[in-house]
Amino acid sequence: MNTQRSEALFVRAQELIPGGVNSPVRACRNVHADPLFIAEGHGSHLTTVDGEEVIDFLGSWGPMLVGHAHPQVTEAICKAAMRGTSYGAPCADEVRLAEEVCAALPSVEMVRMVNSGTEATMSALRLARGVTGRDKLIKFIGGYHGHGDAFLASAGSGVATFSIPGTPGVPAATVADTLLAPYNDLDVVRTLFEAHPEEIAAVFVEPVAGNMGLILPQPGFLKGLRDLCTRYGALLVFDEVITGFRLSYAGAQGRFGILPDLTTFGKIIGGGLPVGAYGGRADLMRHVAPEGEVYQAGTLSGNPLAMAAGLATLDILKHSDYAALEAKVHSFVMELEAILRSKGVSVQIPHIASLFTVYFTEAALMDFESVRTTDQKLFESFYKQMRAQGIFMAPSAFEANMLSFAHSNEDFARALEAAENVKF
Ligand SMILES: *Cc1c(COP(=O)(O)O)cnc(C)c1O
After folding, report:
1. Residue 192 has pLDDT above 60, yes or no
2. Edge-to-edge strand list for the sheet holding 38-42
3. pLDDT tens per residue, range 324-379
4. Whole-model pTM?
5. What whole-number distance in Å separates Cα of residue 420 and Cα of residue 424?
6. Does the CB atom of residue 206 touch ligand 1 within 6 A?
7. Rounded to the nearest 5°, which phi and psi values hold at 150?
8. Which of 106, 286, 299, 390 has the least CB density, counted as fewest CB within 10 Å?
């Protein structure tokens, strides 16, 4: 694969942008590779600045569930742009998107639009603290909720990838109220509640963990969290920034039938534009300013282009066959696993809906500790060989691949063919 132009751009970028990238994981450092610079995306394919076409298994880390440059989404964005890009006053599409989100998610009665998943979780935390009058939160080790200070204790992927236990720049006092538990470990959560029965404002959880690679919730885990939160008067917050509109049109909560008090969104609801949102029970959301006293604002929140892109995306998804995509991904994953196994390596590929991660291990994967024991060298080798053959996958063993409705049987066949050629 020709990468001359990518390399040249990366050299210049590193002089101008820290690490040459505007979000750390894009630098591919975990797999000791350089990033590919992308010129175009259409459907399930990306074209690099060197004119190389690759099959995209990363989906921009989540937003591109309908594929790149879907004509319906592109048209909606273009039309919106012709009408102006920001008004600083409400527009009709904000109401329409709020209606769609509230109709789709069983627990969401009111919603506030923001500009990223990070903003959504930060705002949901402030609301949870404001409403309960409590300061502490519980999050899971390896769970990622954006880069808000309070969440940067033992956050997954980007942070974990670089083995930074948190980050400089976050005062110890800021994470002092962040209590940590291993994913899938209800006993630790129960112990934390018993130790702080009236101090915990909220439990933040990815209902399917997608930032330590893909880790599924054990049966009873989410229900157990629901029960503990109810018993101790804490709010259960589902971070559905990845799972919202992906696990099902009704998110993870619709799929698992567990209702959180608050939900955060991002990625898919912006159709590839910068959007986040948080929502939930109306009696809680009414505490947000200006109706309530919990302040949160944004110059570009509810941006007309982003709303148009989100609405167009949800309109496509509403008529998409999630079960068919899941079945395709399932059979692909089973074949991929068999191919890799036949090469004598230990491998397992947890998957759900259109998400999967390739882990090189036999160990049971329950939490971040177990993910850390997977074979990184094998992963790096696998990643590089797949990429060299035009299969663009998540560049870290701590990330999930995110497939789309645009992926064709031929895409999957080509990926399997590439896997056949991998040598360990
Ligand atoms: C990506 C992500 C975020 C942060 O969203 P940004 O738009 O990158 O700020 C929060 N939570 C989860 C679960 C995510 O995957």
Report:
1. yes
2. 38-42, 45-48, 53-56, 391-392
3. 999 999 999 999 999 999 999 999 999 999 999 999 999 999 999 999 999 999 99
4. 0.96
5. 11
6. yes
7. -65, -25
8. 299
Instruction: Answer yes or no: are the C-beta atoms of 278 and 118 closer than 8 Å.
Output: no
Q: Which domains does the chain have, with CATH numbers?
A: 4-66+321-421 (3.90.1150.10), 71-318 (3.40.640.10)
Centre of ligand 1 from the C-alpha of residue 80, in Å? 25
Instruction: Tell me which residue of 178, 181, 53 sits closest to 121, measured CA to CA.
Output: 178
Q: Residues in the chain, how many?
A: 424
pLDDT band, residue 158 (cuts 50/70/90): low
Check pocket membership of 143 for ligand 1, CB cut-off 6 A: no
What's the burial of 369, exposed, middle or buried (CB within 10 Å: 0-12/13-18/19+)? Answer: middle
Distance (Å) from CA 265 to ligand 1 centroid: 8
Q: Which atom of ligand 1 is nearest to the CA of 274?
A: 7
DSSP state of 363: S
pLDDT given for residue 163 in this prediction? 37
Q: From the CB of 124, is ligand 1 less than 6 Å away?
A: no
Closest of 269, 262, 221 to residue 239, by C-alpha: 262
- The rounded distance, in Å, linking the Cα atoms of 212 and 200 is 24
HSE on the CB side for 213, CA within 13 Å? 26
Residues tagged active-site = 144, 239, 267
Q: Where are the alpha helices (DSSP H) in 237-321?
A: 251-256, 282-285, 304-318
According to DSSP, the β-strands at 355-356 and 351-352 are: antiparallel
For ligand 1, whether the C-beta of 148 sits within 6 Å is no
- Any residues with CB less than 8 A from the CB of 203 and at least 6 apart, and which? 137, 138, 139, 189, 225, 228, 229, 234, 235, 236, 237
Q: What is the pLDDT of residue 161?
A: 42
Whether residue 244 contacts residue 263, with contact meaning beta carbons closer than 8 Å, is answered with yes
